[in-house]
Every structure is written in C-alpha cells, then in structure tokens.
UniProtKB/TrEMBL annotation:
Domain Oxidoreductase molybdopterin-binding: 118-278
Family annotation (Gene3D superfamilies): 2.60.40.650, Oxidoreductase, molybdopterin-binding domain
Record keywords, A-Z: Metal-binding, Molybdenum, Oxidoreductase
Lineage: Bacteria, Pseudomonadati, Pseudomonadota, Alphaproteobacteria, Hyphomicrobiales
PROSITE patterns on file: TAT
Cofactor: Mo-molybdopterin
One Gene Ontology MF term: sulfite oxidase activity
InterPro entries documented for this protein: Ig_E-set, MoCF_OxRdtse_dimer, Mopterin_OxRdtase_euk, OxRdtase_Mopterin-bd_dom, OxRdtase_Mopterin-bd_sf, Sulfite_DH_SoxC, TAT_signal
Pfam families: Mo-co_dimer, Oxidored_molyb
Domain spans labelled Moybdenum cofactor oxidoreductase dimerisation: 299-417
Single GO BP term: sulfur compound metabolic process
Superkingdom in the source lineage: Bacteria
Protein name (database record): Sulfur oxidation molybdopterin C protein
Length: 432
C-alpha cells in the first residue's frame, strides 16, 4: 500500500530519499530479536551509582493536610488539556483535547478529559437541579438527583468520542500531535442508573419510538435517539471514575450513549421527551451530518467506527534514545463492541505485526496496545490498524475518501501515520 515517494507531511512533504531509508530500515526489524539478544540495547541508562544523599531525603516533607484534594507532581505540569486557538471563535463554543500521549492504561483522569461545549460550562446547584420525563409516557415525572440515586446503580466503562475527532485531517495531515488529531476522546467509568429503568418508571406509551434528551446549559442541546438504543445500554450518570461528574462533564447529570457519537451524550441533562418521530434538531441536520461527493448528506450516523492511534512515539512524544529497545504504545476502540486485534507497522505498511493488547477489555471502551521492537536508529513510518469484535477493519485514509470524499468533517476513523526521523522527532504525515 505504501508508495514511498507519495508521502505528504503536515508542513509540506518529506524527501523520497528520506522515506526510502525508513522503509529499508523497517524491513530488518523482527520482534523476536529484541528478546533473544537484548544485550547492548537494554533500556537502561548506564550511570554512576547513587553515592550522595539527594535533596528530598534530607528534610521532612509536607504533612498529610497539605492538599485535601491531591494534585499531580509539579514536574507533571505539562500534562494538560490543550486547545487549538484558531479552530473556534469563542472559548464558550469550543473544544480542548485530551493529552493522549501522556496517558497510560485505559482510564482518562477526570481533570484531563477533553471538553466540548456549545454554550460554556453550566454551573448547576444540585439542590435546585431537576430532571423531567414527558411526552409519550403514562406518568410524566420530575426527579431530583437524590431521587435518581434511589434507583439501582450501574458501573460501566465507556469511551466518549466526539464525531469531529480527527475532523481537521480529512484533507491532509495537519495537526502535529495525537492530542490534537485524536484527543476528542476520553474513557472513564460511569456510575448511574440505566435509562431503561427510569423510562419504565414513567411508563412508555405503545406508540413511543424516539427519545429527545435536552441539556440545561445555555445551548439547550438536544438530539433524537431511537428507543431501541435508549432501552439498550444508555445511562443517566452522576459520577465518573468514582467521584461526582466534573462541572465541565455535565454536573450533576449527563446522558451516556455507549459507542455513539459524543454529541448525543447530553450534559447537564434536564429533560427527556418521548415521541413517535425524530425531532430533526440542529445538531442532527445542519451539524453532525456528512456531506458526500454527490451532494447528498448522510444523517443519523450514530455509531463510532473502530479506530486506533499510536500515542507513543508521536509528535509530542518523540523517541529520546538513539536506538535499541523501544516501546510503541497506543489506544484502540470501537463503538460496536470490543477491539479484538490491533496490527502495527513501522515501515509504512510493508510488514504488519500483531500488537500486544494489555489491560481490561470491555465493550465500547478503549483498549491499550503495545509493540516492542529494536530500533536501529533509522527513520520509521508508524501506523496502527484496529479490528473489532464484528470483524470490521479500520480503513486507510484513501479507502475512507473513496467512499466519503473530501467534504466531511465527522467520523474520520482512518489509519494515522507518524513519520519518525533519525533524530527521534515525529511528524504527522500521509502516505498513499
Ligand atoms: N451537552 C450539552 N448540554 N451541551 C453541549 O455543548 N456537547 C456535546 C456533548 N453533550 C454538549 C453536550 C458534544 S459535541 C460532545 S463531543 C460531548 O458532549 C463532549 O463531552 P465532554 O465535554 O464530557 O468531553
Ligand atoms: Co462533539
């Protein structure tokens, strides 16, 4: 699939000679060599022994009361959500991005979950909060948060991906970092009540076919969700990763719509109306539809297709050693189930290797993968390809564009390429 002379960098191309070098280098690698002969290439820093007392062992440290709510080490101050200033006109209708290259495992810490708001963060006093169900129900109902906490609880881990994740990359490699190309995703454990249970309490009328969640923020965001999904695995969540939702993630209550585009996961939810037809709200007509080459638009593109990205190395996380044992890592997910396999190439698709999936594997959740190899210090073209439990294979950018054209913003789940240079720096590129 890779034509070495047809590579496009985010800043306008890389020379043919450069990429030929990368491909040739890649051919020589074999994972087994790493384990058979690690000597010389071992991941250690030969240094002198520790001979003097270091600063931190010579005085007492802070007591237990110093930080009632703990925060990361000051040396981790660079691990933050970031935005792209030119992308949006105002910070209230904007987005920032999860620093995927700085994270491990599959759980996103609450303070690092990307935020996407259309009207800023609503600050809701939980004592005044109310949630209502109306429309085609036997008994319209209003709940407080405490009422909802008297329903049986569920704990589930799901990814939330904005449909616009990777949207800036449709027309070519653009943003230099997986935080920016893929960071409109987070993966947390939600606690709450199943939406089915609450709808049953209100009693669905026989002609009920759709539900419309509506936000209590200034954007009053609303979407149409078919009843089969509402009764399947949706949740009304009040906690994430063990603590109350953060204000920016919808405190005190948000809708969880597993595997479906993030826009439907209404935050600060104040109401669900039950109806017999979709509402055709702004967010499912003028937005969150996909304009095809023939001028028609796809609508109701709810499911998030299988996708993956290599988080390390990546442009914000270059390789710091000259050569030798190297850990490649990344994340993969699918809106249709589990990720059953991830393939990795380091030579732009000439050779594919099965990555090692590590950590828990849940439906519609992030999965963590690794590929360890012995780097000979020459340029590389890194790609990962996810395969989900339905057998769906993540497409190349060319394959995706053949079907969807160049006009789209949403639902770009194409394979990402990183170009690793000999000095360890990494750049966002495309190959075809
Ligand atoms: N809900 C409300 N009420 N208002 C919003 O602006 N943004 C939506 C969705 N729910 C939004 C909302 C979009 S587009 C996405 S991608 C997700 O929330 C983002 O959730 P997060 O901020 O927790 O990452
Ligand atoms: Co979104």
């Amino acid at each position: 699939m890779s034509k070495p002379d047809n590579i496009r960098g985010h800043s306008g191309g890389v020379s043919r000679r450069h990429i030929l070098g990368a491909s040739a280098a890649g051919m020589a690698f074999a994972a087994t060599r790493v384990y058979a002969n690690p000597a010389g290439d071992a991941p250690t820093t030969p240094d002198k022994a520790i001979t003097e007392l270091q600063d931190w062992s010579q005085a007492l440290g802070d007591g237990v009361d110093a930080k009632p709510y703990g925060v990361p080490s000051k040396y981790e101050a660079g691990v933050v959500r970031r935005n792209v200033e030119w992308l949006t006109a105002s910070p209230q209708s904007s987005v920032n991005f999860t620093p995927l290259h700085d994270l491990e495992g599959i759980i996103t810490p609450n303070g690092l979950c990307f935020e996407r708001h259309h009207g800023g963060v609503a600050e809701i006093n939980p004592a005044k909060f109310r949630f209502m169900i109306n429309g085609l129900v036997e008994k319209p109902m209003v709940f407080t948060i405490d009422d909802l906490k008297r329903f049986p609880r569920e704990n589930r881990i799901f990814f939330l991906e904005c449909a616009a994740n990777s949207g800036m990359e449709w027309r070519g490699a653009q943003l230099n970092g997986c935080q920016f190309t893929h960071g409109m995703i987070h993966n947390v454990m939600y606690t709450g009540v199943s939406l089915k249970r609450v709808l049953e309490e209100a009693g669905l009328k026989t002609n009920a076919k759709w539900v419309m969640p509506e936000g209590g923020d200034s954007a009053a965001m609303n979407r149409s969700i078919p009843l089969f999904k509402a009764l399947d695995d949706c949740m009304l969540a009040y906690a994430m990763n063990g603590e109350a939702l953060r204000p920016e993630q919808g405190y005190p209550l948000r809708l969880v719509v597993p595997g479906w585009e993030g826009n439907m996961w209404v935050k600060w939810i104040r109401r669900i109306e039950v109806g017999d037809m979709p509402w055709h709200a702004r967010e499912e007509t003028s937005k969150y539809t996909d304009l095809m080459e023939n001028g028609n638009a796809r609508r109701f593109t709810w499911e998030m297709d299988a996708k993956s990205v290599i988080t390390n190395p990546s442009p914000q996380a270059p390789i710091k050693h000259k050569k030798g044992f190297t850990v490649l890592s990344g994340v993969a997910w699918s809106g249709r189930g589990k990720v059953s396999r991830v393939d990795v190439t380091i030579d732009g698709g000439k050779n594919w290797h099965t990555a090692r999936l590590d950590g828990p594997s849940f439906d519609k959740s992030m999965h963590r993968f690794y590929y360890e190899f012995d780097w000979n210090g020459e340029p590389l073209l890194l790609q990962s390809r996810a395969i989900d439990s339905t057998g769906y294979v993540q497409p190349t950018k060319d394959e995706l564009r053949q079907v969807r054209g160049y006009n789209s913003i949403y639902h770009n789940n194409a394979i990402q390429t990183w170009h690793v240079k000999a000095n360890g720096e990494v750049e966002n590129v495309e190959i075809s």
